[in-house]
Predict the structure of Endolytic murein transglycosylase.
Amino acid sequence: MSDSNFKQKYKDRIKKRNEEASTVRKIVAIALTIIVIVLLIGGISGYFYVNHALQPVDPDDETQKNIEIPLGSSTSQIAQILEENNVINNALIFRFYTKFKNETGFQAGNYQFTSAMTLDQIIASLKTGTVRKDPVFSVTIPEGYTLEQIAESYAKKLKFTKKEFMDKVNDSEYVNQLIEQHPALLDKVILKPEIRYPLEGYLFASTYNFYIEDPSIEQIVNKMIKRTEEVVLPYLDALSKLDLLEGEQTVHKAITMASLLENEAKTKENRRKIAGVFYNRIEEGMKLQTDPTVLYALGEHKDRVLYEDLEVESPYNTYHVKELPVGPISSFHKNSIAAAANPIESDYLYFLAGGDGNIYYSKTLEKHNKLKAEHISGE
């Protein structure tokens, strides 16, 4: 073999080795990259898994669950009982958490837990044997309260301010999230620019019990909206059959109507009668001309609406716009939404509240004016 052939073969072998070494390095680099990615994904997944397990099962669910912890139960058995009753997310993580914090001395007994409780709250109850039956506090929202009044009621008892509550419920991103979560109740219409507050009328007036010391604004709003769903949605079929409410925005129109009825009368019977009057006026192309909408448009409370007040240009003022105002003007009682769904049919087009507390109905303007002269002082 000549020197030139030997040198060429030697070069070829060196080149082949270099190519093989390069291929091996690439394979090793790819393998290492895959391993790092798998470990990274596993680490991230593990973090989210553990973090989720450490959170309350449902921060908005304060329904009390009666749970018995039998005498002699181990931490593992207690964790399993709590997971089966949806009080904690994960029994294994609960056990690790108690070991990490060196928590022991859990007591047997009958407990009232909620899915909204944190692990620390649950552990504290188990250690002391505390059985929480009574709410930490209650808030009563009277029927007819506006959103601002609701915010003020909560601000008096909790750490956030009225402004912080209002800022939250008026945040379009947050409201969009609520619309996605409650599609049967909430519609994009509540985000129209001319609507003063998107959630006006959608936070149901009731007494709310809270079993945690410092609920967030989101927890409060979710609790109230769920209550609104419970009250309003059963009437959806009846509401959708009414010619003036059928089609798009049925629920929004119905809640708007309920808020008007709430402010016009106190009894179930009169609310149904007035609902019939309002529907008759809408069908006849007449303006509703209801004073509570004027006050809402003005943004103030007045004992008496003046003629000059009726001129305010607002999509809420029913002396200015035809049909219903652009949105609800307050919260409402259950029988107000019932009245909106089941009006008493009549030929009445007018009504007035007399100074004696009674409501008088009439079919003609002439009769209405006569009743006004008879029953309203100063007329």
